[in-house]
Request: fold
Amino acid sequence: MTAPANQALARPSGPKQSLRRKGSRGSILADRAATVVLWGTGVLVLAILGSILLHFALAAWGVVSPSFILDDPSSTALGGIMPVLWNSIYMLVLTMLIAVPVGILGGIYMAEYAGENAVTSAIRFAEEAISSVPSIVVGLFGLILFVDDAHWGFTALAGALALTFFNLPLMTRLSEQALRAVPQEERSASLALGATKWQTIQHVVVPLAIPGLITGVILTAGRVFGEAAVLLFTAGVGTPPHYNFANFDLLNPASPWSPFRPATTLSVYIYKLNSEGLGAFKNQIVDGSAAILIAMVLIFNLGARFIGRLLTRRLTAA
Amino acid sequence: MAQVTTATRLTGLRAAPGLRERLDIPKRVVFLAAASMVAIVALLMIFIAWQGIQLFVKDGVSIGEIFSPTWNPLADGGPQFGFLPFIAATILVTGGALLISTPLSVGLALFLSEVAPNWAKAIVQPSLEIFVGIPSVVWGWLGITVLVPFLGKTFHDPFVVSLPVVGQVFSVPGFLTGFSWLAGSLVLSVMVLPTITSVAYDAFRAVPQELRTGSLALGTTRWQMIRHLLIPSALSGVLTAVVLGMTRAAGEALAVQMVIGNSPSMPAAITQPLTTLTSQITLDMGNTVFGEPWQDALWTMSLILLIISVTSVVLVRVINKRRMGS
Reply:
């Protein structure tokens, strides 16, 4: 069966029998070589990732400690990163408070209502456009809109809104995918029982899509947590003061709970320390901070997988 | 929905829709949420375009001037706003990154879709997701602490300099600390690797399984099947992957700024420090005052970046439409 095909592949000169063998030996060698090279790419990527993780584990050794996480920054000693870590978590929560509802609702429209028309394709174009606009440009948009024109100055709220702009397409797309994965029969059954479209979405489609939706939330959160370019010109780059967590006055810029204050996050802090290049402990602080960022990325990724799998099992078993 | 309305009409089981049903408030709310992205993009384009043209409208700089090779906002005879060094550097650093990353990413995508057994996929795919998640400042910091010192040493290593072709590349005179075009391209190539890989992987997966079995049944080896069947049929998808990688590389700001050396000179050698559009904006925005020509020039650069990214979205659409057509 294979003879005609191999003849076609071999060069048409010389005695057929020997050429065919030669040709197939060459192509088998090429195939083996290709297999080795392709395996090589897989091994290389794992090696790069492994050495990065190892590098930061070693670099963080002796730097990351409870006091590094819980202390204020210091100009004379190693100090800690508590205020910037607080700001990272604060910005994450503030951004997700806006981005998650809007993203999931948008995803519901795209999965359940959107028809094949000009409006839908305009929304898709916008989705793709924001995803491809450089993060620094989104940051500049936040700068002109909130910081300059609205006269807010550098605030956590401006940063969170700019981060929402940047991550809304991702949140919407992941929600849409999660909702589309719900089998059509579930919708038909609900509609056949007399439920309205919205009742079906509310009580059938969304509950079934929850594992996927949560995975989407966690993946978006991972991206929000590490983002710096968007925040550089919206939430500010100053070293935070000592925070008094007993101050719950949301309108007071001195309160760490207020959205109307500058909020330098961990990623921005790394960038700032590097560009200012000051302090005897700069390298240790940045190494430790980078290690914490990577650890958070790992937690977000593994968390998304674990929770997604756990919820799917729970919901499908119930 | 259609079945329900028909059934309702036929049996008359449900009363005529009330005001609440006719308004369909939930539908309006979810539509607004989705349409908010259109509003965001429109506003972003208007604001950036308005700020971006101030350099020409208010400061009287001609469009030709920004394509000059001299960038000197503090020059004695009046500021000179030539963007050519930044535009050239953006193109070259991005191009370098794609040259390194494309073969590697496409190879990895082929490995995942054609070669890897399930256990290998189960390791490599989550690793790629972690790759995507590593923040750009961390890549930049890795570049500064590991890559740049290594390159700085290599540029001066007598053995490397004595090598035939490589030696000529590395012995170019100049400021050779390791902060360079090459460092920028290398850092970017790792950052765009997951983007190109995942899009190319989807393209390869989309090729019908029957074509593979058909080819293998004709006696081709797996590599012949990949080269003559898989890559040609997935070509537009691979092209999309490269365009998306390019967009990400050209727009990346902080990691590049940290390793490229930030020198606004015209590119001549891969060992030379350069400045890209994004890195110049990042560096100067905080040092300039709103409304002054220097800052207006930075807004014009961000308008150029915006145009690049919108063009690439259109480009991807054109590539995909052609694929659907054929």
The two ends of chain B are 35 Å apart (CA to CA). The domain at 88-325 of chain B is CATH 1.10.3720.10 (MetI-like fold). Chain B touches chain A through 92 residues (CB under 8 Å).
